[in-house]
Amino acid sequence: MADTKEKQPVFINVKVKVKHTPHGDGNSADRRYHVKCKPDRFPVYTGDAVINYQLVSAPDGIVFDGFDRSKSYPDRQMSQPSISVDGKMMTFSDRNTEKEPVLIILRFRDKSIILYDPEATNDPVAT
After folding, report:
1. What gap in Å lies between CA 35 and CA 40, rounded to an integer?
2. Residues 63-85 pLDDT 10s
3. Taking Cα atoms as reference points, which of 62, 70, 123 lies closest to residue 87?
4. What is the Cα–Cα distance from 94 to 59, expressed in whole angstroms?
5. How would DSSP label each residue in 48-113?
6. What does the pLDDT read at residue 98?
7. For residue 81, how many other CB atoms are within 10 A of its CB?
8. From CA 33, how far away is CA 31, in angstroms rounded?
């Protein structure tokens, strides 16, 4: 009898903290905020991984606004994000069929757009 066990997608939860930097020495694109992700880097070893960014600490009014992605076939690797009603979680799937660093730029919103670039790497394992 054949093995009918289905592979379950891997779930990766990334906790995100955003802190205002009044002196403009943050790591966001406009330097107004310091963004920290935990884990700050993570490899994706399986196909169809689910990646969830969870905003655990941020100034009032900061919420997820989506993400930008780039690389050879960004639309074929990453799904469109789903953002929770309160804007504190953003979830998307990663097909992970090509070995490559994936450039994801998190977008946050307050009164303007805040950009931050965490690091994720696709590294599929042959099955």
Report:
1. 10
2. 999 988 765 555 567 888 999 99
3. 62
4. 29
5. SEEEEEEEEE--TT-EEEEEEEESSSHHHHBPPPEE-TTSSEEEEEE---S-EEEEEEEEEESSSE
6. 77
7. 21
8. 6
77 pairs with which residues across the strands? none
Task: List domains and CATH numbers for the chain.
Answer: 11-122 (2.60.40.420)
Per-residue pLDDT tens over the stretch 6-33: 677 789 999 999 999 989 899 988 899 9
Residue 83 contacts residue 16 (beta carbons within 8 Å): no
Given a contact cutoff of 8 angstroms between Cβ atoms, the answer to whether 79 and 67 are in contact is no
pTM of the model: 0.78
Contacts of 79 (CB under 8 A, 6+ apart): 92, 93, 94
For residues 127 and 116, what is the distance between their CA atoms, to the nearest angstrom?
34
Instruction: Look up residue 62 and give its DSSP letter.
Output: -
Place of tokens 């789903």: 82
Tokens describing residue 120 = 């994720």
Task: Band the pLDDT of 103: cuts 50, 70, 90.
Answer: confident
